[in-house]
Amino acid sequence: AKKKGKDQYAIFEPSMRESFQKHLEMEADLRRAVLRHEFQLRFQPIVRLATGEISGLEALVRWQHPERGMIPPLDFIPLAEETGMIVPIGEWVLREACRQAAHWNRQRPEDQWLTVSVNLSAVQLDRTDLPDVVNAALTDSGLPAHRLVIELTESLLVDHRQETLERLHAIKDLGVRLAIDDFGTGYSSLAYLRRFPVDIIKIDKSFVDDVGDVPAAAALTLGIIQLGQALQLSTVAEGIEDAGQLSELADGNCELGQGYYFAEPLTTDAMQELLFPADKQ
Ligand code: C2E
Ligand code: CA
Ligand code: CA
Ligand code: CA
């Protein structure tokens, strides 16, 4: 290491120092953001492909930074996970999503009540109090447990300790449903289906992208849908952007879909307007 000493110093300047500085600044910013409630939710509709009706919403977090504007989740969630700040942020997302969904549901006939899907980070799943946090969000909002879906990525399930599995079962025992997000992108998707008590498969956008034009992609996607049916799981196709994809997926009996073809993630006001157009003044 001594021989490389000069090089090692070199890497700290200037770009490394700058990015380290940026990192520290952003960490301080993130702490302040939690205290000042700078986060917002967007809601993207999840649509029943056979009928076109909205069956649920996925809550997606945004950071409204006072100087830098709207920051997408992929630009701050990794840091939030590293610093543990994802725990208070994630709890806020969960509570706010349940509160808003319960509010909207109270204005709808009960047979049209929406589900709300919330993304969970591995760091949240590591916490022993997660089932209590979920239960409190349901109780305080009045959202029935079976209207809440917790989305887990395969990467999150890679580290499958016994406690993780027990925690997921405790959450399921509340009546909450579990979805595997980005299905098909991990190395052992099929193994997870056996090991974890999932109810819903979300087929990753990378499969859906090519479904209208690449026969192999269509075959794989239809195969995943059939697998879901055989296991009595709901299937959601992610990232539907055009009518060709939609018809292919609907023909393949995919139950649900979401994507820009239907709607982008919407602000609370825009979603309100989509759900209750008659209320417009
Ligand atoms: P995800 O859970 O796979 O969410 C879907 C992402 O795809 C969203 O990006 C959504 O806006 C985008 N999307 C939806 N339909 C389409 C489409 O038709 N075309 C394209 N190109 N994109 C589409 P977003 O909102 O930027 O979120 C990115 C990721 O950040 C999410 O991926 C999720 O992993 C994570 N995330 C978002 N909110 C939360 C949260 O509250 N907690 C945690 N832990 N992670 C979150
Ligand atoms: Ca998701
Ligand atoms: Ca996804
Ligand atoms: Ca295409």
UniProtKB/TrEMBL annotation:
<feature type="domain" description="EAL">
    <location>
        <begin position="23"/>
        <end position="279"/>
    </location>
</feature>
<protein>
    <submittedName>
        <fullName>Bifunctional diguanylate cyclase/phosphodiesterase</fullName>
    </submittedName>
</protein>
